[in-house]
């Protein structure tokens, strides 16, 4: 390169750099250099491939092909060497590879995990990197995480989780060209150290106790041996499904779900007064007082709303488990707010999707969103050291004494001292 050519290259590069244009994309100052570097590297790979053995088998060069590749620096076309037997497998730019830079693939997967559509991702990549990427290629890139999704779904679990919330979300999924409504089951747990963890995601046609039984069995097969407290909505048969797999688990039904279901059958003119009386039940200082208030509720409203009162009485044991604990723990377990909060964050990502093309497209997006959400779960639950002490006093040997002392902030001696007291 002459001095004049070098000066022109430097001037062009500076102008493009200052204007924010790609230096390596179409028309970029450095594009010819990158193109030349890649082509020379491919030629060197071909020379290495056509060794003495290959040539003795009759293999030799067979002209060149053309390929347009995309990278974080833009798109450009390269000449690719070919051999007669088509056995050449380059390492730098592999056959059928159209995305050169892995970091661009990572950016695409990251944008997809934030809920961006393929159309929006394509526009963003075009604007940022002067690179056109089709929806087919974007789909192929996001499909790279499918092995990660499957590995995550089948990963081993801890033997014990102190609290587990179980709930489902509902989505539209295309099946054989038709839109179907499917349930996405999510299980959120708190481990011995007090940290949140999504234990699994499962898809079914509808939410029901029979499928929950399959979900719980899968959790057991992945190493989960015991759950101290399971918090669920009021789905019929849910408690029996849990106890059939984890018989020692205490099942706490969601108070909020019970209240919502009750208000469906209360006349609007009575709802305010009824709720005032109902609060005396679920906000009582202990179970005995709550049961007295429940009797008072029956005396006042039983004849007018027998179905509502009967529902509270029938589900009372599962609704009242939280009275065994102090107020901070009660707030954690007497509703499914924890998993519903997780669902709200997931919906922020999935709300732009009208219908998913298949089950895996739904799982891919929820998995990526979950991975982003879990990055924020860097600390145990508030006052976990006090909570784990109460759990140890209540559940004893079901909690191994090998808990993470630094995370919980307590020692084995402190726990045993509390147990004696």
Order of helix and strand elements from N to C terminus: HHHEEHHHHEEEHEHEHHHHHHHHHHH
Number of strands: 7
Count of separate DSSP helical elements: 20
Poorly predicted runs are 403-408, 411-421
Q: Give the helix level as a range of percent.
A: 40-55%
Distance between the termini: 86 Å
Arithmetic mean of pLDDT: 82
So what's the overall shape?
elongated
**Largest beta sheet: strand ordering:** 5-4-3-6-7
> In this structure, how is the largest beta sheet organized?
5 strands, mixed
* Helix/strand structural class: alpha/beta
Strand content: 15-25%
Kindly provide the radius of gyration, computed on alpha-carbon positions and rounded to a whole number of angstroms: 30 Å
Give the quaternary arrangement of the chains: single chain
User: What count of domains describes the coordinates?
Assistant: 4
Provide key terms for this protein.
421 residues, alpha/beta, 4 domains, five-stranded mixed beta sheet, two-stranded antiparallel sheet, disordered C terminus, DNA-binding, transposition, DNA recombination, DNA binding
Q: What is the topological layout?
A:
Elements: H1 3-19, H2 31-49, H3 52-56, E1 61-71, E2 74-83, H4 102-113, H5 118-129, H6 135-142, H7 146-153, E3 160-175, E4 178-190, E5 196-204, H8 209-221, E6 226-232, H9 238-245, E7 250-253, H10 255-263, H11 268-282, H12 287-301, H13 306-314, H14 316-319, H15 327-333, H16 337-350, H17 359-374, H18 384-395, H19 405-408, H20 412-420
Parallel strand pairs: 3-6, 6-7
Antiparallel strand pairs: 1-2, 3-4, 4-5
């Amino acid at each position: 390169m002459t001095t004049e050519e070098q000066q022109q290259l430097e001037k062009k590069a500076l102008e493009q750099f200052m204007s924010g244009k790609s230096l390596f994309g179409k028309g970029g100052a450095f594009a010819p250099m990158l193109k030349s570097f890649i082509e020379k590297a491919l030629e060197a790979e071909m020379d290495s491939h056509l060794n003495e053995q290959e040539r003795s088998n009759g293999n030799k060069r067979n002209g060149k092909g053309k390929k347009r590749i995309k990278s974080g620096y833009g798109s450009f076309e390269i000449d690719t060497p070919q051999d007669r037997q088509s056995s050449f497998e380059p390492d730098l730019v592999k056959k059928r590879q159209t995305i050169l830079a892995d970091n661009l693939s990572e950016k695409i997967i990251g944008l997809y995990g934030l809920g961006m559509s393929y159309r929006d991702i394509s526009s963003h990549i075009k604007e940022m990197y002067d690179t056109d990427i089709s929806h087919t290629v974007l789909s192929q890139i996001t499909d790279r995480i499918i092995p990660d999704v499957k590995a995550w779904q089948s990963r081993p679990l801890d033997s014990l989780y102190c609290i587990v919330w179980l709930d489902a979300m509902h989505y539209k999924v295309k099946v054989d060209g038709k839109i179907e409504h499917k349930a996405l089951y999510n299980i959120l747990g708190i481990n011995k150290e007090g940290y949140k963890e999504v234990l699994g995601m499962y898809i079914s046609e509808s939410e029901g106790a029979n499928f929950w039984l399959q979900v719980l069995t899968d959790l057991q097969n992945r190493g989960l041996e015991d759950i101290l407290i399971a918090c669920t909505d009021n789905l019929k048969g849910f408690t029996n499904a849990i106890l059939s797999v984890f018989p020692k688990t205490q099942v706490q039904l969601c108070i909020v779900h019970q209240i919502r279901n009750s208000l469906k059958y209360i006349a609007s003119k009575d709802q305010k007064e009824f709720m005032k009386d109902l609060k005396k039940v679920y906000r009582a200082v202990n179970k005995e007082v709550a049961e007295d208030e429940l009797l008072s509720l029956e005396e006042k409203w039983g004849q007018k709303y027998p179905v509502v009162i009967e529902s509270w009485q029938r589900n009372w044991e599962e609704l009242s488990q939280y009275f065994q604990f102090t107020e901070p723990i009660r707030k954690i377990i007497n509703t499914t707010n924890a998993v519903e909060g997780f669902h709200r964050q997931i919906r922020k990502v999935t709300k732009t999707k009208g219908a998913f093309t298949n089950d895996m497209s739904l799982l891919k997006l929820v998995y990526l969103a979950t991975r982003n959400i879990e990055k924020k779960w860097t600390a145990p639950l508030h006052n976990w050291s006090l909570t784990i002490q109460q759990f140890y006093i209540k559940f004893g040997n079901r909690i191994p004494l090998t808990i993470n002392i630094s995370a919980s902030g307590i020692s084995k001696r402190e726990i045993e001292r509390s147990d004696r007291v």
